[in-house]
Task: inverse folding
């Protein structure tokens, strides 16, 4: 007994209609989630970005009407502002420091933590704790520790260990490095946890094969661990390079760019122009310049990715 063709045709049309209706409902549900987020992004990111681009081309105090001056702010920034040049050099030092010291410390710590089984969670929490502490708490603690009269140096001097009771934050030769040291205290522990998580995703079989080939611990780290976590390392190098141009909190809390601009970064220089000297248009030009620098860094990593790098 054969089925009625008209009934089969009706059933197929009904199934097709129900499938299209389900697909439409899914599309509407997706748009219901995307549209609010997109609107927030336009209001919070795109809108201020466009206004910042406009104000970078104006002479504006932050209040009242802005006077359009074209590229005048950028001409002054790159040809006359010696403080910006010094701050930019300090940012290059800051970036070089955080692309090397915390990375090496984090890789070393992560490789050691990967071998710990008992109490591993407690130790990892201790490493991660400085990262979640508010910057004001960490910076104030370090200001006390580096105090030449009340800090660690003074305590060591009392027991006969001389030379460390130095005004680290008050000496123009050591201020910037001291702030980087204090900031690194919270950053390298965070990197350690990220690298440790990436290491734990490496198949154990690769280490077993390396051991069978006679590889020692250093050879396993170099030939198995580092290639296995290379995407994580490269991504954190990218983020650290971008973040180095945005660093502000520790510098402002500890020295506010002093003494005599010795620890001034581009971000603190921008803050002073906008909120202390009321040169909001000029500060917008500085901010746009920093954004372009970050864009160049991202562009460099994008080129490497297209050439086959796993980023």
Result:
């Amino acid at each position: 007994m054969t089925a009625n063709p008209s009934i089969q045709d009706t059933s197929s049309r009904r199934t097709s209609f129900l499938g299209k209706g389900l697909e439409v409902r899914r599309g509407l549900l997706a748009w219901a989630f995307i549209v609010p987020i997109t609107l927030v992004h336009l209001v919070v990111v795109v809108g201020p970005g466009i206004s910042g681009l406009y104000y970078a081309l104006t002479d504006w105090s932050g209040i009242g009407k802005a006077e359009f001056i074209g590229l005048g702010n950028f001409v002054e920034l790159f040809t006359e502002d010696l403080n910006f040049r010094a701050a930019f050099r300090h940012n290059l030092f800051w970036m070089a420091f955080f692309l090397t010291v915390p990375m090496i410390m984090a890789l070393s710590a992560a490789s050691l933590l990967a071998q710990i089984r008992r109490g591993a969670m407690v130790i990892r929490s201790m490493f991660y704790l400085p990262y979640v502490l508010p910057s004001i708490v960490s910076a104030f603690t370090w200001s006390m520790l580096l105090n030449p009269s009340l800090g660690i140096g003074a305590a060591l001097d009392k027991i006969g260990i001389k030379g460390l009771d130095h005004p680290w934050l008050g000496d123009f030769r050591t201020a910037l490095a001291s702030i980087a040291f204090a900031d690194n205290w919270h950053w390298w522990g965070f990197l350690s946890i990220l690298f440790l998580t990436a290491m734990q995703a490496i198949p154990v079989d690769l280490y077993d094969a390396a051991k069978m080939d006679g590889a020692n611990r250093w050879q396993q780290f170099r030939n198995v661990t580092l290639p296995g976590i290379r995407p994580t390392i490269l991504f954190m190098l990218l983020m650290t390079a971008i973040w180095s141009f945005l660093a502000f909190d520790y510098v402002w809390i500890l020295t506010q760019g002093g003494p005599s601009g010795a620890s001034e970064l581009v971000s603190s220089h921008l803050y002073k122009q906008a909120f202390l000297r009321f040169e909001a248009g000029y500060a917008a030009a500085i901010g746009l310049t920093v954004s372009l620098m970050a864009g160049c860094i991202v562009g460099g990593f994008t080129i490497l990715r297209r050439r086959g790098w796993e980023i």
Remarks:
- Residues 5-55 form the longest helix (51 residues).
- The chain has one domain: 73-306.
